[in-house]
Amino acid sequence: MKELGQILTRFTNSPKPLWQQYGKDLIQSHNALRELGGHNNWDPIQFPDWLLLEIESNILIRREQIEVAKAIISPPSSSNSVLQLNMGRGKTSCIVPMVVAVLADSKQLCRLIVPKALLRQTAQTLQSKIGGLLGREMKHIPFSRRTPSGLGMQKLYVELHRDTLGRSGVILAIPEHILSYKLSGFQKLADSKLEEAREMMGTLIVGR
């Protein structure tokens, strides 16, 4: 089945003459995979979600995109890293969904942090890429200094994150909301509301 998926993605994105040349013969199509390129530096059996992403988006993931995605998932330095890629190279439409599909595995909570100006665009693009064949859920949970932060609200906040984790989903966040939650926790501590502060600080540790 995965071999059929490989054939489908490569021939859907191949030049028209090659499609006409091999499309009628599945055996010849399979033999023509090397001519068409793709899947050279990654194994669809190891990353089946990437194969589904290719089919869903009608694309063939490029070698450069694979290298960048792997560097984000597992940085060579084993620490925080910064990567730079030119505009139009598929960062939001391809690489980010690839990374999310691997990291959001129900064992760890995947949180994508973007600038506020890019929130709506990223949400629309990401949902269209991972919400179909990949079956992943995306949530945006805003939080500001005006948001009630009692124990009831804190439990709801935690449950939403745990539900996303259990569904192998991703949290889409902006820096302002994360900072507001941290500051609210510190304010609870300063106000000697220790139980509420303990709950919020515990959530910060889990959500890092």
UniProtKB/TrEMBL annotation:
Gene3D superfamilies: P-loop containing nucleotide triphosphate hydrolases. Its EC number is 3.4.19.12. Keywords: Hydrolase, Protease, Thiol protease, Ubl conjugation pathway. One of its GO terms (biological process) is proteolysis. The keyword Kinase does not apply. It is an enzyme of class 3 (hydrolase). SUPFAM superfamilies: P-loop containing nucleoside triphosphate hydrolases. It catalyses: Thiol-dependent hydrolysis of ester, thioester, amide, peptide and isopeptide bonds formed by the C-terminal Gly of ubiquitin (a 76-residue protein attached to proteins as an intracellular targeting signal). Residues 39-203 form the DUF3638 domain. One of its GO terms (molecular function) is cysteine-type deubiquitinase activity. InterPro entries: DUF3638, OTU_Deubiquitinase, P-loop_NTPase. This is ubiquitinyl hydrolase 1.
